[in-house]
């Protein structure tokens, strides 16, 4: 099915007026969660390219809250690491966008802004990780410019040459790169972080001739606070090698469920465009749980998953009294300097919360996990910091 | 004397040559070929005779084949169903089309072969469509549309569509969804309304949500949006023009196949086949809003043009390249006419709550007596003129469905950013300009950077004609700096000589039909690392915005890591990989990185180009 490009008329999200929305109070924490599926054996598939001196692989290292400074240099000392680069990921807010001719594309009303997930890069180093035909755009990126992912260009309704007014002023789009080159981020900008950013998540990407996880962990350990875990990915373990890589990038969440404008509030919640909420967020009955308030697009597969549990006589694996919500417009961990929780789109829900609190050892019935995963949800129980109550949309069933 | 052009290349240019619309730089070569080639000389004479006949006869004196056809249609309608052919209004277009139809017959006999080359005949269809579009003042048609495979729970959808047009830029498209949905209250009815006039455009469509979660995700809401203060032909690539006359779809004759004349819906029709990637303007004409199934660039499109009027009678999109593929979408005309008048309010565009301004202020009295206006406007008439909110000036010209806009702004600085990949062309007496074929978002475009002035022309005229318009400007376009420095990179636009001077550079010995080198760039960093990108594009349109691009670098030592699903391929015995997401094949060739990116051509074609590098 095709959403037809709107060349003639403005984007629907451009100008909907609205009111503040009360946040749904829920248990926080899914944002600190990172997926921790055991990485598959890099050599288990004959299709997967193997890292070698002539065909290196990409490696990702990240930790909750960001890797400490010095991580890049430490990783570069590990044998088999050809070079490494630090990337900082964070959230910027778009006030306005204009075409290359200067015509207004979008200006949210009511003091709201459009959340834009950005990655800050060192172009010369990062260019080694993108397709050669897109390297020039990365290499020639200037400080007052950004590069848009292809999907982002579709969301914005414009491409190279358009301008976005972000937190620190106007930025011109120097070009459009593939989603792969943007690593799933909406835009790429040069480091350092703009002054308006009060937080970012630092991670390291590296080119490696072999995936020396243990050696890298050994090198990073002295730099880390006690108890901080590091996630290392190598090759094509995930579609994108990025911070918090077990959930989908915000870019793809927007593409599937829509983009909203919102007003960030000091308490860590956001006031989403009420028109967006009114049209997409619904309260509905589903099996096994009390009435849920979710994105209406999520309901079929949520009903499908819960219905399967019920049909298989597994109703007892879900305690309705411990359901902790779905739609919750807020930042991860209610940290207004952080990234947005995917609860803001109403596409994640917390189940059996009292027995599966954030950071605790998972106590979910694995049959519940298997059924939910079968219906396209990812489970937070295997994340770097486990969030075992958390199930989030990952794909259509 | 041996002709320097082959007949295939010359064929399409003959029409432009006779119209005086051929690029002056190319005209001598075409004339030389015609003089030396008996076949093309005969084609030229025939075409000239027919065109002169059409152009010199008053409309009413054009041999009126329509009445006879209509009698036949009326008779067949009683037998076969409701195909309501128009009456008097068909005449003018019918004249041109009759000439084209006659020409098809004439050329096949005069050239002296039983079946003349399809390309030659296709070129005549192209030129006929151009003439038909130019002469069309009004149009109204109704279509029945059947679409298959939109959603697994709704295997077939049915629509009625009505399109109205009043030259030069009043359009109305109404689509009504007649589908029997499993539960009509829960599924979005794909009713779409689009109205465009000189001042505003307005669309109303159902709010769309992810298809995989339909019908649960549908809110029942519709959206309405308005653009006020429209620039002339703003967003013209999104207008349903090709539904009226497939001017853009058939803009180049080397990418469609003329299969012959057939009876279709009771009328004589010219049957044309082409890949969906070439038919984007036609298919998307019905998809201005709402939700529709997607097609592959390689899906086959069969198009039947009324041989009287060249209006589309029917078009089918089939799965895959084969004529036997499943029909995924079919649109059939049930009536068409050229009304003298439309009901009041037909093109009145409502003002929706959601609106944006195009930033155009039209002159109360359009002034085209401007030193910056083109002397040659290809027979198009002054239409709208005015100013933009940024202080620029826009002049527009139109005739029928054919249009031209020129935006002029004061600018002493070359454009910022990475150099445009536009083709640098030399104009006749007006210096240098930069040409881009039509894309999904815009029509053909020429930019001139003169002293303190930047002029930008956009049009659905053919490339050669648009360049001639650009040549007639009282401006001398200056070449952009051949090299620029950006963030430690030197980016240099290369000519053919510069390209030959690069030992590592290889060029394809064969390209798909219509493709040619349009621009080349060498990027060097401070350490002397070099990467060469060469663009190959067709003259009239590249709807993916890219065409074909090769990237080569002796400084890249290995294929970069990728998280994508990659398919192994072999290029001349060397292992490579294919990225379907990027439409790119990459491989290492004796220490040189090479890639061919061709997103609309597919893996096989890209690999074929790769194997032809030498």
What does this protein structure show overall?
The complex is a heterodimer of chains A (397) and B (614). Chain A has nine helices and 19 strands. Chain A is globular and about 60 Å long. Chain A folds into two domains: 40-236, no CATH class; 252-393, Muramoyl-pentapeptide Carboxypeptidase, domain 2, CATH 3.30.1380. With 397 residues, chain A is of the alpha+beta class. Chain B is an alpha+beta fold. Chain B folds into three domains: 135-339 and 347-358, outer membrane lipoprotein receptor (LolB), chain A (Clam), CATH 2.50.20; 360-471, Protein Transport Mog1p, Chain A (3-Layer(aba) Sandwich), CATH 3.40.1000; 483-611, no CATH class. Chain B contains eleven helices and 31 strands. In chain B, strand 23 (483-486) and strand 24 form a beta hairpin. In chain B, helix 1 runs parallel beside helix 3. Chain B starts with 6 loop residues before the first helix and ends with a helix. Chains A and B meet through strand 1, helix 3, strand 9 and helix 8 of A and strand 6, strand 7, strand 10, strand 14 and strand 25 of B.
Strand content of chain A: 15-25%
Structural class of chain A: alpha+beta
Total helical segments of chain A: 9
Label the CATH architecture of the largest domain in chain B.
Answer: Clam
Total discrete domains of chain B: 3
Number of strands of chain A: 19
Quaternary state of this entry equals heterodimer
Give the low-pLDDT segments of chain A: 2-53
């Amino acid at each position: 099915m095709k959403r037809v490009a709107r060349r003639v008329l403005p984007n629907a999200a451009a100008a909907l007026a609205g009111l503040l929305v009360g946040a749904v109070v829920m248990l926080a924490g899914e944002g600190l969660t990172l997926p921790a599926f055991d990485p598959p054996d890099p050599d288990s598939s004959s299709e997967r390219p193997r890292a070698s001196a002539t065909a290196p692989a990409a490696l990702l290292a990240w930790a909750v809250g960001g890797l400490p400074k010095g991580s890049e240099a430490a990783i570069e000392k590990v044998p088999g690491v050809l070079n490494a680069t630090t990337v900082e990921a964070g959230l910027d807010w778009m006030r306005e966008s204009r075409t290359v001719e200067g015509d207004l594309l979008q200006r949210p009303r009511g003091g709201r802004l459009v959340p834009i997930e950005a990655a800050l890069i060192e172009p010369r180093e990062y260019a080694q990780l993108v397709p050669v035909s897109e390297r020039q755009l990365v290499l020639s990126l200037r400080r007052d410019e950004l590069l848009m992912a292809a999907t982002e260009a579709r969301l914005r309704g414009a491409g190279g040459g358009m301008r976005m007014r972000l937190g620190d002023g106007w930025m011109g789009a120097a070009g459009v790169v593939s989603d792969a080159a943007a690593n799933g981020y909406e835009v790429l900008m040069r480091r350092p972080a703009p002054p308006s950013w009060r937080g970012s998540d630092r991670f390291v990407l590296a080119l490696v001739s072999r995936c020396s996880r243990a050696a890298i962990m050994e090198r990073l350990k002295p730099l880390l606070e006690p108890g901080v875990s590091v996630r290392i990915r190598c090759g094509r373990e995930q579609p994108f090698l990025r911070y918090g890589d077990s959930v989908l990038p915000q870019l793809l969440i927007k593409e599937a469920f829509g983009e909203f404008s919102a007003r960030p509030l000091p308490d860590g919640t956001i006031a989403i465009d009420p028109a967006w909420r009114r049209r997409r967020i619904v309260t509905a009955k589903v099996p096994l749980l009390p009435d849920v308030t979710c994105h209406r697009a999520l309901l079929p597969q949520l009903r499908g998953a819960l219905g399967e549990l019920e049909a298989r006589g597994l109703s007892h694996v879900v305690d309705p009294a411990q359901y902790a919500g779905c739609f919750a417009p807020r930042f991860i961990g209610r940290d207004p300097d952080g990234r947005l929780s995917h609860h803001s789109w109403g596409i994640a829900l917390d189940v059996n919360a009292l027995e599966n609190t954030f950071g605790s050892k998972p106590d979910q019935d694995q049959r519940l996990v298997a059924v939910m995963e079968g219906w396209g949800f990812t489970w937070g129980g295997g994340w770097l910091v486990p969030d075992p109550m958390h199930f989030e949309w990952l794909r259509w069933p | 004397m041996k002709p320097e052009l082959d007949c295939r290349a010359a064929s399409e240019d003959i029409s432009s040559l006779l119209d005086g619309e051929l690029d002056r730089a190319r005209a001598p070569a075409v004339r030389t070929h015609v003089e030396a080639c008996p076949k093309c000389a005969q084609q030229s004479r025939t075409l000239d005779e027919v065109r002169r006949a059409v152009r010199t006869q008053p409309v009413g004196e054009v041999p009126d084949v329509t009445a006879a056809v209509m009698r036949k249609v009326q008779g067949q309608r009683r037998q076969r169903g409701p195909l309501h052919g128009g009456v008097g209004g068909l005449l003018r277009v019918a004249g041109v089309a009759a000439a084209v139809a006659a020409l098809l017959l004439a050329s096949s006999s005069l050239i002296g072969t039983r079946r003349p080359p399809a390309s030659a005949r296709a070129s005549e269809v192209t030129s006929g469509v151009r003439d038909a579009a130019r002469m069309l003042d009004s149009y109204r048609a109704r279509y029945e549309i059947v679409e298959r495979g939109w959603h697994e729970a709704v295997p077939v959808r049915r629509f009625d569509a009505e399109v109205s047009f009043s030259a030069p830029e009043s359009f109305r498209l109404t689509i009504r969804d007649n589908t029997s949905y499993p539960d009509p209250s829960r599924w979005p009815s794909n009713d779409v309304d689009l109205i465009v006039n000189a001042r505003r455009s307005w669309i109303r469509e159902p709010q769309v949500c992810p298809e995989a979660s339909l019908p649960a995700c549908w809110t029942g809401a519709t959206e309405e949006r308005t653009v006020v203060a429209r620039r002339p032909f703003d967003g013209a690539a999104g207008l349903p023009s090709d539904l009226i006359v497939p001017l853009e779809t058939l803009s180049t004759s080397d990418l469609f196949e003329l299969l012959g004349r057939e009876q279709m819906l009771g009328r004589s029709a010219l049957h044309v086949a082409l890949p969906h990637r070439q038919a984007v303007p036609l298919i998307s004409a019905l998809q201005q809003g709402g939700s529709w199934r997607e097609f592959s660039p390689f899906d086959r499109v069969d198009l039947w043009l009324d041989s009287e009027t060249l209006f589309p009678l029917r078009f089918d999109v089939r799965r895959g390249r084969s004529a036997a593929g499943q029909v995924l979408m079919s649109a059939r005309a049930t009536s068409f006419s050229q009304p003298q008048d439309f009901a009041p309010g037909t093109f009145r565009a409502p003002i929706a709550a959601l609106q944006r301004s195009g930033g155009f202020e039209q002159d109360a009295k359009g002034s085209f007596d401007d030193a910056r206006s083109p002397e040659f406007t290809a027979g198009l008439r002054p239409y709208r003129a005015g100013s933009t909110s940024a202080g620029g000036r826009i002049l527009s010209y139109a005739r029928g469905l054919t249009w031209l806009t020129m935006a002029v702004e004061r600018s002493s600085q070359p454009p910022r950013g990475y150099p445009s990949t536009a083709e640098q062309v030399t104009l006749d007496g007006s210096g240098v300009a930069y040409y881009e074929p039509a894309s999904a978002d815009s029509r053909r475009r020429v930019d001139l950077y003169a002293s303190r002035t930047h002029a930008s022309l956009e049009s659905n005229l053919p490339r050669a004609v648009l360049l001639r318009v650009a040549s007639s400007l009282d401006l001398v376009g200056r070449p952009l700096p051949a090299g620029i420095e950006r963030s430690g990179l030197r980016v240099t636009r290369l000519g053919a000589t510069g390209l030959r001077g690069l030992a590592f550079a290889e060029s394809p010995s064969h390209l798909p039909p219509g493709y040619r080198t349009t621009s080349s760039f060498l990027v060097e960093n401070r350490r002397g690392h070099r990467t060469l990108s060469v663009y190959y594009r067709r003259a009239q349109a590249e709807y993916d915005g890219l065409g074909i691009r090769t990237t080569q670098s002796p400084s890249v030592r290995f294929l970069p890591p990728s998280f994508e699903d990659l398919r192994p391929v072999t290029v001349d015995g060397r292992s490579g990989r294919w990225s379907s997401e990027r439409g790119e094949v990459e491989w290492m060739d004796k220490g040189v990185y090479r890639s061919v990116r061709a997103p609309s051509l597919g893996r096989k074609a890209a690999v074929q180009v790769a194997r032809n590098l030498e």
